[in-house]
């Protein structure tokens, strides 16, 4: 038997080390609970593990609500900035488009005004050219007052010399005439060549009113271009013409057989 068999041991029981403890954490009932459980239990301890608890308040509902509101506010601010940026961009684009449209409208208006002014200028030049040509023709064709007076006198003198001669259809003188044959022969005396028939003679020269007659105007009966009879106004309200086979060449007042119209070739 060993001499040390009955000698009790004097070594003290070992305490559990810090490294043998386990840390457990949990949230229960709105509080943070820390539990430290020993791996071994002293001899004088109870059978169940010893728990050391310490309660700490968690983040309150007010703080959570405030944080949520702050996040919403930040998100709203960001959204407002983005919306404002989009609006500014849209306004800028609209302003540029409006400026472009305005510029195009101004260009079109200027082009239209320029075109209108050019058309007016051309029309004025054309009118001036026509007036100039008309004036030149009048200057070249119109006889002087003395010449006209002389031509009229010659014309009337010839017509009066034919009074009493016979009317013969288709005759052009010198012993007999029809109505258009007499007027053609009379104007040949002063160098004016008239067409042969009444219809054509009624469209010569310029149409004049019966209230504005001058000596030498050709009178016609019927309508211009289809007249059936002609004579010559000799002044004093009278005309001379080859009327018909019964009367021959006579001088009569206008109201004897009022003409339809008159033309002026002098």
Give a verbal description of the structure.
The chain is α+β, with helices and mostly antiparallel strands and 266 residues long. The chain has a domain at 147-264: endopeptidase domain like (from Nostoc punctiforme) (endopeptidase fold (from Nostoc punctiforme)). The chain contains four helices and eleven strands. It has helices spanning 61-141, 145-161, 179-188, 198-201; strands at 22-28, 31-37, 55-57, 166-167, 176-177, 206-208, 218-221, 229-235, 238-244, 248-253, 261-264. Strands 6-11-7-8-9-10 form a six-stranded antiparallel sheet. The protein starts with 21 loop residues before the first strand and ends with a strand. The model is unreliable at 1-5, 18-41, 50-55 and 136-148 (pLDDT under 50).
